[in-house]
Write the structure tokens for this entry.
Amino acid sequence: AQSVTQLGSHVSVSEGALVLLRCNYSSSVPPYLFWYVQYPNQGLQLLLKYTSAATLVKGINGFEAEFKKSETSFHLTKPSAHMSDAAEYFCAVSPQGAQKLVFGQGTRLTINP
Amino acid sequence: EAGVAQSPRYKIIEKRQSVAFWCNPISGHATLYWYQQILGQGPKLLIQFQNNGVVDDSQLPKDRFSAERLKGVDSTLKIQPAKLEDSAVYLCASSRGTEETQYFGPGTRLLVL
């Protein structure tokens, strides 16, 4: 079975500051890991995914995430926040070789001017 | 390439009424998913189709929810009768295959009064 815990339901940072959104997973089999972003009244958009290749994964809009097996973590970072990054972010896990996504509860990112 | 289309975008009904949602996936995508996203939570998979066959409906409340994808393209999700706790956003997603990236539609926001 797979599960995801996102630490912090709401994160607020200043424009230009580092963005760090935390995700820890639990999986009984080697996992695939994903980060999705959801803007208001829109569906989810894939930011990046880890599929057992490089542990540091680069995604769209300047985001990246690092898979750390020893810590069972897949934290999302961006060096410099932009106002347009304000959205809800979801971490998800699935067993390798499948796309049966199990989502975390989400983290709402607010950017302060 | 057109994205996943869903309608209606919003629906308000009273409890015990029936409601249906429609989804048109991206052209050529064989796999279609319905998710339920309750406010403050991540999406939860309700049902997954591969062409017109059901792959996984283990989390679908079958006493009141039903879904079909008769011709392997469009899909409908029905709730009959609705309960207050069914208030949520219903997201449809599609992918080329069961191991491919999922693309999400904008969702249908349901409010049950």
Q: What stands out?
A: Chain B has a mean pLDDT of 94.
